[in-house]
Amino acid sequence: MFRKAIINALFSALQSFLIDKITVEPLKNYILSLLAPAKKVADLLTDSNPNNGDQLMTFWLEHQKELLNLSIEALKNLIRAKVKDPVLLALILSALDEIDEGTGLRKA
User: Fold this and answer.
1) Angle, vertex CA 6, rays to CA 18 and CA 1, nearest 5
2) With contact defined as beta carbons under 8 Å apart, do 76 and 34 qualify?
3) Which of these, 4, 21, 29, 62, could form a disulfide with 46 (CB 3.0-4.6 Å)?
4) Cβ contact 39:11 at 8 Å
């Protein structure tokens, strides 16, 4: 229980000292969207159920589409920021959209 309390305190500190200070809403929302699954995983690893492997696999199976979608969207944003050639940018984003459709992930 002490370990769980420390982890919860760390998440609270992240929220108070870092995340709450972010004024760019899209960035803040992105970080919060990553933090929510991390909190859930921490809860699973510190609960009274010793079968962490099964709990984590269940969590992954239930949330993999949204977690993978976050990764694809982050990659798209990185590419938009780094690729200056509009033709190449369109080609790469189109390819990522195809990957999105091929995996059944929600498109942005």
Assistant:
1) 150
2) no
3) 4
4) yes
- Boundaries of every domain in the chain: 1-47, 49-108
With contact defined as beta carbons under 8 Å apart, do 71 and 103 qualify? no
SS3 of the chain: the string is: CHHHHHHHHHHHHHHHHCHHHCCCHHHHHHHHHHHHHHHHHHHHHHCCCCCHHHHHHHHHHHHHHHHHHHHHHHHHHHHHHHCCCHHHHHHHHHHHHHHHHHHCCCCC
Greater confidence (107 vs 103) lies with 103
CA distances from 64 to 7, 20, 67, 95 (A): 23, 27, 5, 21
Between 87 and 3, residue with greater pLDDT: 87
